[in-house]
Structure formats: C-alpha cells, structure tokens
Amino acid sequence: IWYHFAIMFEALFILTTIDAGTRVGRFLFQELVGHVWKPLGRLSSLPGVLLCSALIVAGWGYFLLAAVADPKGGVQALLPLFGIANQLLAAVALAVGTVILARMGKGRWIWMTAAPLAWLVVITESAGWQKVFSSQPGVGLLAGTPNIHDRINVTLTALFMTVILLMVLICLRECWMILSGRRSVHATGAPDPQPSEAELREA
Known about the structure:
By secondary structure, this protein is mainly alpha-helical. Helix content is 74%, strand content 0%. The protein folds into two domains: 1-69; 73-186. α5 runs antiparallel to α6 (148-179).
C-alpha cells in the first residue's frame, strides 16, 4: 500500500509542484532580467525562455542534489524550508484578499482574512526565526557544524521572512489609507467589455 501511496504522492503533488514552480519562477525571473536586457525579457523569445528555464531548473536541482548528498539528512533541512515557503504563499494570498475587501468597501468583513493572516504570519515567522537563530541541534539550521547548504537555507529562510513582512506592512498601510478615508475606494467588478476587431475596423 505504501508503494502506491508514494507513487500517487509523487505524481499528484511533487511533480505538479515542480512543474508549476518552474513555470512561475521562469516567468518572474524572465520579467526581472528583462529590466537589465530587454530581449531576454520577451516571453516570445525562445533563447530567453530556454535560458531562464534552465536557470530555474538548476536552482531546484541544486536543492534536490544537496538533500540527497547531505550526510545529516537533507530532507530534515529541505522540508522546513519548503513548509515555510508554502505557508508564506498562503499569507500572501490572505494579504491580497484583505486589501481587495478594503477596496470593495467591505471593511466589516476584513477580519475574515485578517485574522487567519495574523495567525499564519506569527506562527510561520516564529518558526522561521527558530530555524535561523536557534542554537539547539535539530532545530536551528546553523546549530552544530553548519555546511554551505545550511547557510544557503538560512539565507533563503531569512529572505522569505523579510519579503513577507514587507508585503504585510504594505498591505496594512493600504488598508489603513482606505479605511481612514485618505484614499478613495474603487469598487472592483467585471471589466468593461472590449470592442471586437470588426467593431474597431468599422470605427
């Protein structure tokens, strides 16, 4: 039974996560480097797509090889990093949802997203803090005799924690500006219908 469960877990979760993560990572990385060299940032550029995809694959491939070759058991360091990143993605969704509710003028319903957002940020940030600064072996990534893989994991964990804190602060400021009346509220709805090509030619 465990064999079938492992195959199902790999096919339905791991492979789909890698596939979606590679696509999103390539898109974001290509958009980022497009500010440095515009031809590389064009989504229609085959060399740009292949190069950015190869770099993203090399990135997660490094973590995979490091986890396999780590004598301490790389999964013990990889799974907490994956868990922190996964929970912070949920925090991003809740933060964006909170701002959307504020912009829609639904201030009384903000608690529905703000409460789980606060809980998620506190729990995940405290767990990340322990992974970065704890001196207890088995908890802190730098406890004991850290290697280069541990230092990279600590750097990424600190980066994730910093980014989510900045985003939450930006969302809180946006909500405060809207709820205090310092920024006008624009109701979000369906976009206006766009004219077809035939209508544009007739015009």
